[in-house]
Write a structure and sequence with these properties.
2 helices
C-alpha cells in the first residue's frame, strides 16, 4: 500500500446546510407514518378482498346445493315416470290374447320409451348446463371484478 503524502484539509465552513437533528427525526417520523398508513390501506384492501372471496364461495356452495337438489328431483321424476310406464305396460301385457298383440304392444312400448328417454336426456342435459353456469357464476363474477381492479390504467 502506498501512502499519499501531502496536506489534508478539512472544510469547516462549507456552504452546505447544517445538520438539524429535529428535522431528521421529524422526517423519519413522517416516513414511518406514511409506511403505517400504506400498511393499513393494504391490510384493509386485503381484508375486503378476502371477504368478497368468502362471499363468492358461500354463494357458490349454496348454488351448488340448490342445483344439486334440482338435478336430483329431475332424475327422481324421470325414474318415477319410467317406473309407472313400466307398470302400466305390465298391466297391459297381462291382458294380451295373442302373440301378435304382444309383439305390437311391446314394440309400441319400446318406441315410446326410447322417445321418452331421449326427451329426459335432453332435459337433464339442459338442467346440468344451467346448473354448471349457476354454480360457477359467483366465482366467475368475483374473478372478473378482481381482474378489473388489477388492470393497468390505459
Amino acid at each position: 500500500m502506498s501512502k499519499i503524502t501531502g496536506k489534508t484539509e478539512t472544510i469547516e465552513n462549507a456552504d452546505s446546510p447544517a445538520f438539524e437533528q429535529s428535522k431528521a427525526v421529524e422526517q423519519a417520523r413522517d416516513v414511518a407514518e406514511q409506511g403505517i398508513e400504506r400498511s393499513k390501506e393494504a391490510f384493509s384492501k386485503l381484508n375486503s378482498d378476502a371477504e368478497a372471496t368468502q362471499k363468492a364461495f358461500e354463494s357458490t356452495f349454496e348454488m351448488a346445493k340448490t342445483t344439486s337438489n334440482e338435478v336430483s328431483l329431475n332424475m327422481i321424476a324421470s325414474l318415477r315416470a319410467n317406473a309407472e310406464a313400466g307398470f302400466t305396460h305390465l298391466e297391459a301385457l297381462v291382458t294380451v290374447k295373442s302373440p301378435s298383440e304382444l309383439l305390437e304392444l311391446q314394440t309400441a312400448f319400446l318406441h315410446k320409451q326410447i322417445e321418452k328417454s331421449a326427451e329426459q336426456a335432453k332435459a337433464l342435459q339442459a338442467l346440468m348446463l344451467k346448473a354448471a353456469e349457476d354454480v360457477s357464476k359467483p366465482i366467475k363474477d368475483a374473478f372478473e371484478m378482481a381482474l378489473k381492479e388489477f388492470k393497468p390504467a390505459a
